[in-house]
Amino acid sequence: DAGVTQSPTHLIKTRGQQVTLRCSPKSGHDTVSWYQQALGQGPQFIFQYYEEEERQRGNFPDRFSGHQFPNYSSELNVNALLLGDSALYLCASSLWTGGSNEQFFGPGTRLTVL
Amino acid sequence: AQSVTQLGSHVSVSEGALVLLRCNYSSSVPPYLFWYVQYPNQGLQLLLKYTSAATLVKGINGFEAEFKKSETSFHLTKPSAHMSDAAEYFCAVSERSGGYQKVTFGIGTKLQVIP
To answer: For residues A69 and A80, what is the distance between their CA atoms, to the nearest angstrom?
Structure first.
């Protein structure tokens, strides 16, 4: 049973560029959440997707957008990259109807903005 | 609004000593509580979770946590630290609000195990 997978593992971009990160949820899960984890910080919630729609959003600007596909996989897009966007981006999957919202995390994508 | 406070961003213990990592939460409804562990350059792995069943929760790798409603705490313990326990630990609270489950993480506690 494959867990949550993310690609790429590492990414280096320059300011102003755009980036797309990808996530495949754990088998049987239908909900994907994205988090940003800056160095020395806890994960900060970006947004959550279910049934191909954004259901919740954290305190992140519109430069951060996402998509969920019919197979439940998801993409995170960040436009006009800033130095402060450098972080580990974590994807977590869960079941929408899961009472406790237990989330399973992928290994993350390390984004460096120069 | 829910929140999580982890007391002590860094904790050092000797190998074989008791591990105690503190977590206090704030929630307007009965919460679900989690502890995750993160090893360097890896994602988060679930250690244990509280879902309103038993207040003493046992997890993987010998860790356990006790939910104390009166103290709004969910501290993580392990009787005897092992070198492999060196990692960062995150406490998280999840509650249902407006039809959605929202998860909030603490800032993390980095555990150092001294041989």
So the answer is: 24
